Sequence to fold (256 residues):
Amino acid sequence: MPFLRKGKGILLAYDQGLEHGTSKDFNDKSVDPDYILEIAEKGKFTGVIFQKGVAEKYYKGKIPLIIKVNGKTSLPKGEPIASQICSVKQAKALGAKAVGYTIYLGSAHENLMLHEFGRIQQEAHEMGLAAIAWIYPRGESVVNDTAPEIVAYAARAGLEAGADAVKIKYTGDSNSFRWAVRSAGAVKVFMSGGPKAPTDEAFLTQVKGVMDAGATGLAVGRNVWQHERPLEMAAALREVIMNGQTVETALKKFTR
Ligand code: FBP
Fold:
């Protein structure tokens, strides 16, 4: 897969502008897509994730591109649904090597998203692109979206639905996450970063747990580009993900 290096992946996610708005997640620097591209390139990420509008106006082709082809804002209340806003053809024309699609498993609308993903996965494969499913259990019927059994269910749903890779949340410990990775079978598993962790050590410990469980890597946004030293965080992540190093060794990448 073109967004992996030595079989591992560190993807820089930047679709939060649509998902969360600009005031909560961004500051004066991170609101600028060029800043994110600079981090992606200098930080040796194996791919960058944009919505089509950002890709059209900013992407310069230096790093493998993944285009999210569906999305939603945080404004509507009720059961979540994210619908398609970019075709696979357009994603390919913009230079994407893969398309990303969010399925809110457990939502009253999951049938629509599973259906749409089925078509998108087929189109992607016909055009030589990979299909990555963000599988987030969410909605009134989901009590705990990081419970081990629900995360494993999400991973398996990715396999059954034809995803080449899934992006799922961490269960909180390596042992239970291992079952999610097993459940995904031949599908590559990426942990979804989440809000910025309280400390670098806390975040790297999660990432280490994920890699020890057999995952392929990480798709991360806020924990990198909200960091005061994003390139040092990127270097620390490479130590854990690419080089199999300990958290202690990775922490040496921070200058203070
Ligand atoms: P983060 O590492 O910043 O959490 O990004 C991962 C991601 O999946 C983004 O691609 C997406 O915008 C966001 O999380 C979705 O967040 P939420 O859980 O609020 O829907």
